[in-house]
Amino acid sequence: MWNTKDILETIKMIQDENLDIRTTTMGISLLDCADTDIDKACQKVYDKICKKAENLVSTGEEIEAKYGIPIVNKRISVTPIAMLAGVSGGDVTKYAKALDKAADTVGIDFIGGYSALVHKGFSAGDKELIESIPQALSETNLVCSSINVGSTKAGINMDAVKMMGQQIKKTAEITSDRQCIGAAKLVVFCNAPEDNPFMAGAFHGPGEPDCVINVGVSGPGVVRATLAKMDDTADLNEVANEIKKTAFKITRMGQLVGSEASEKLGVPFGIIDLSLAPTPAIGDSVAQVLEEIGLEQTGACGTTAALAMLNDAVKKGGVMASGNVGGLSGAFIPVTEDAGMIDAAGKGSLTIEKLEAMTSVCSVGLDMIVIPGDTTPEVISALIADEAAIGMINSKTTAVRVIPAIGLKDGEQLDFGGLLGYGPVMKLSTLSPAKMINRGGRIPAPIQSLKN
Questions:
Q1: Alpha carbon 208 to chain centroid distance?
Q2: Containing domain of residue 176, as a range?
Q3: 371 found inside a domain
Q4: Phi then psi for 205, rounded to 5 degrees?
Q5: What local confidence, expressed as pLDDT, does residue 409 receive?
Q6: How far apart, in whole angstroms, are the C-alpha atoms of residue 228 and residue 233?
Q7: Domain with 110 in it: what CATH number?
């Protein structure tokens, strides 16, 4: 099954090229925890998470020790909490505190699912959850929140888009004494997948089983190192083939970890998310992969084309290595979490407008971008609407996770530390979209939604 060359190659990837399993995420359905008494519901939520995930961290540590593969994060995703809030009513932040307490008890890094799916409108509990987000994220440490405001089938709920612009700004303001960290744990989606293991957007969709284990792999450093060894005269077809081969090797490791975790925990193996998730560590950068392909710096003309090729090659290589591919699966471009992106943004090579173009061909969207603290909620809403439109028209997942840096202006820097990294405040257009945002309503689904 294994040969010496494969083993030595994997060891080198781990030791020298930042290869790791970015997360093992246990998805847990909370539908059976619904209760008309919110306090009883919260107790059921706490008890079920603690029971299902009691061995999640220790299992991850056993697998790390057995194979020498770093598993950076152990996480949990749960049923969108708005569904439970619709049954119970009451103070929705009680659910956030129950999630936070359970996450702390089982020892995980983050818990996602303080979420609502409102792409076609609001049902019971949705508006209440959205309104509670600033308080919930300011009063918890491990809870992450996501809202799906659009889809190719439904169009874009512009009333929800308007609300989310306001909530992102409020969340940043209420956590301004902590580097506006609340906004870094809040993401707004179009076409959100139900099995995404990555935070802050992870939730356990209603179509998922009662409990499942999902794996997110990460290997931009390995891809960069592979391309660095290639001759500069190699054509782009050869480059794409090398990326595919590398993605295959990375995904095999994820398949091994997922299968082992599933067996040890006694729950189904869900998916491997192939996303190339960078870190602020030098060399572990998607931007630097693009530069190895041949750009002077990320943000140059050609960046979108290089990213499109990278994203496609990663998927082609990954699907050959596993029958369990899902989630987001592609290349992430979170500015504060990628050393090359941070450098390009700081030098002005990479702008919001270029990032928006790049999101049309890669995973997620405008991710971990620090914006001026005086940005209006209407501008934030319009940014969300633009990204949602890209996702809706192209039948792909897009998202917005921006952090209004309260008290800072463009060119200054916000530092979160750890995996969330740091980054410059990026300039945004201040032209007002207020009239459009205040119209509300729904942008209708595009013609390509009629595929039945």
A1: 18
A2: 27-56+70-190
A3: no
A4: -65, 155
A5: 87
A6: 12
A7: 3.20.70.20
Going by C-beta distance under 8 Å and a sequence separation of 6 or more, which residues neighbour residue 380?
164, 165, 168, 169, 371, 402, 404
Strand-pair partners of 27: 77, 212
In a domain, 253, yes or no: no
First to last CA, the chain: 44
pLDDT per residue as tens digits for the range 336-371: 988 899 999 999 999 999 999 999 998 788 999 999
DSSP designation for 406: T
Average pLDDT over residues 213-224: 87
User: CA-CA distance, 281 to 267, in Å (whole number)?
Assistant: 33
* Residue reference for tokens 């190719």: 152
Q: Identify the CA nearest to 250 among candidates 285, 228, 276, 284.
A: 276
Question: Does residue 396 form part of some domain?
Answer: no
**Full DSSP string of 422-449:** EEEPPP------HHHHHH-SEEPPPGGG
Look at the pTM and tell me if it is higher than 0.90. Answer: yes
Q: How many domains, the chain?
A: 1
| Residue 378 amino acid letter | E
pLDDT score of 10: 59
| Cα 139–Cα 77–Cα 389 angle in degrees, nearest 5 | 90
- Is residue 107 situated within a structural domain? yes
